[in-house]
Amino acid sequence: MPLNLSVSAPERCYWQILTGEETVWDPKTGSEEPLVLRSFLFLPGNLPQLKTVRNSLCVHSDPFADLDSCPTAHVDDLFPFFMRHAKQMFPMLACKDDLRKISDLRLPPNWYPEARSFRRKVVFHAGPTNSGKTYHAIQSYLAAKSGVYCGPLKLLAHEIFEKSNDAGVSCDLVTGEERVMADPDGKPAAHVACTVEMCSVTSPYDVAVIDEIQMIKDPARGWAWTRALLGLCAQEIHLCGEAAAIDIVTELMYTTGEEVEVRNYERLTPIIVLDRALESLDNLRPGDCIVCFSKNDIYSVSRQIEIRGLESAVIYGSLPPGTKLAQAKKFNDPDDPCKILVATDAIGMGLNLSIKRIIFNSLIKPSINEKGEKEMEPISTSQALQISGRAGRFSSKFKEGEVTTMYPEDLKLLKEILNKPVEPIGAAGLHPTADQIEMFAYHLPDTTLANLIDIFVDFSQVDGQYFVCNMDDFKFSADLIQHIPLSLRVRYVFCTAPINKKQPFVCSSLLQFARQFSRNEPLTFAWIRRYTRWPLQPPKNIKDLVELEAVHDVLDLYLWLSYRFVDMFPDASLVRDLQKELDGIIQKGVHNITTLIRMSEAQRMLNLDSSPAGKQGQLPGAAKPSSGEAVEAAMAESLASKSLASKLVRQGRLTPHMLKQLRKEWLKQQTEEERARAEDGSHSERTRRKKNNPKAH
Ligand SMILES: Nc1ncnc2c1ncn2[C@@H]1O[C@H](COP(=O)(O)OP(=O)(O)O)[C@@H](O)[C@H]1O
Ligand SMILES: [Mg+2]
């Protein structure tokens, strides 16, 4: 068990006793020289030390209480009592050798005997984004008699599934939430496109493609790439990804006795970093994509663009796949007036986009560190390259890509980030299996699942090329449903369901599903309709949109569970239809997203909606549905408690209907004023620039 080096000497001593370590740091001399633990305890002068241990850990029970009344007692007499007490407090000590053995994660190649029974040919397609890596790997996949494509996203699995079937190579689709068989009778095809977590490590294939292999370093999902790399039973394995992963892959393949052939690729289209920031949205051109790292920035930039009389498409991570594709299509369509894209880094992978210029609105991306704290760090070189790489596309009209920032002060940082060499990846992710956790639970029956994971991670041993993936999401779900009576296996599966823990409705749905499950009540179509308050109305503002996105995620959760517990989640195909319908409703909403943003702004200004646009987490199950009446009712209710408007309503001088009318008029007026201001602003800015730089045009 690793020691926390910051603890005080007595605590260190205590831990070493508990964990049975043979040597101890001498707190008196500060010397690192090893002392034999028992002799350290038996030194007569160490009795006060033992008392301090007791006090610092607030252990006042037998046998330590006797220490006070019996100052002359020989510590040797206490040792058996001490150990008994320690084992009660820390039950894992009684079976620590077994636990160490179960959590031994060294030699992962040996976990896949089928793959180890022959030598696989491994080809690494290395290069930047848009260099044709996936294209070339897929050529081998299509030419093979059988194949598996493992992608990082559902959208990419879908893309290969469609490409393959279009090319006359019958291909199935397997993702966590979806199984589509190419054969109408459901006979499995020889080719399958899947998300990497879903690939089979027992089915034989001629060719396997593992896309975006650099994600082997991902703190949470890296294990899935490691598993695919070590476990796929394919004669040929094609890896596509950043050159930063070549070393780690070569090292891992050394342990399996397989050689790696590296094929390097250059970008198909050149890309240049501009010397000028965009500075103003007035300088936007067709084919521009503004990259933001928060939804609120997306909303405000789209609104600013609208004020300038331009149309924009919007893509961010929590939109359903159909909506993302519809927005991408709108942006790519040469006949559509929408020529600007506002997006998060969700565009880094998996969508075909005809982008000429990437403009970073900011270079700071909020992230959650290992301690679960929010950090505001500049994006990594790898992330910056991935996003910038989307500018200029081989098959689009933009043969040359450009990259810049919105603000001049960010440009230097962008250049620094892009010019930094990408660090080679040092380690690949691993995670415990359900079997291992089950064996832990057998030894520690009274321990919660989240604690089992902690103890597992503490006990686990890994080789230098590996790390244990962060299991915070798993532990979050485990804590959420801990009080619900479920078997360990079922509990484990519920906790592996991918959920967005920032979405309260999705979290409470996991809880609700688990509760129904434990009561043995199947979650039927009728139930899920009631639960989500179907039929849902098109969104009227951003809050509604966020709620609808959460409902879409809840339906995803249902579908995910339906493949693991068919009997308890029996209506997958009906729920899928419902989800498609919802995707359509969201698509329409996002099509008019600037109207939704305007409505939210207006409501906020009228003090009707105290939550910021984009604030997440109104539960349809707990709060109002998104129906028109409900919105009006909520407005009236909200009015009853706030501002001048509330006074007027209370005095009967204003009715909710009159207020609605006022809002409409006010909104119209506000838009007109903003447009006029924008025209004014762009005119004066152009004049100013002309004055400063007579050559500017
Ligand atoms: N040799 C080629 N012939 C035709 N299209 C290609 C070729 N190489 C790449 N492409 C197209 O260029 C785009 C980028 O290629 P892709 O393989 O996705 O790049 P990467 O995987 O390196 O990011 C894709 O639309 C792909 O179909
Ligand atoms: Mg690719």
| Radius of gyration over C-alpha positions, nearest whole angstrom | 30 Å
Give start-end ranges of low-pLDDT stretches.
Answer: 1-12, 21-44, 56-64, 609-642, 684-697
Biggest pleated sheet: 8 strands, mixed
Structural class: alpha/beta
- In spatial order, strands of the major sheet run 6-5-7-4-8-9-3-10
The beta-strand count equals 20
Helix content: 40-55%
Distance separating the two termini: 67 Å
Bound molecules: adenosine-5'-diphosphate, magnesium ion
* Form type: globular
CATH class category name of the largest domain: Mainly Alpha
CATH fold-level topology of the largest domain: Methane Monooxygenase Hydroxylase, Chain G, domain 1
Task: Give the total of domains.
Answer: 4
- Averaged pLDDT: 83
CATH architecture of the largest domain: Up-down Bundle
Short overview:
With 697 residues, the protein is of the alpha/beta class.
Walkthrough of the structure:
This protein has four domains: 9-89, no CATH class; 120-264, Rossmann fold (3-Layer(aba) Sandwich), CATH 3.40.50.300; 271-419, 3-Layer(aba) Sandwich (Rossmann fold), CATH 3.40.50.300; 471-624, Methane Monooxygenase Hydroxylase, Chain G, domain 1 (Up-down Bundle), CATH 1.20.58.1080. Helices cover 46% and strands 13% of the residues. The protein has 27 helices and 20 strands. Residues 1-12, 21-44, 56-64, 609-642 and 684-697 have low confidence and may be disordered. Adenosine-5'-diphosphate binds at residues 127, 129-135, 240, 268, 394-395. Residues 133-134, 211, 240 line the site of magnesium ion (MG).
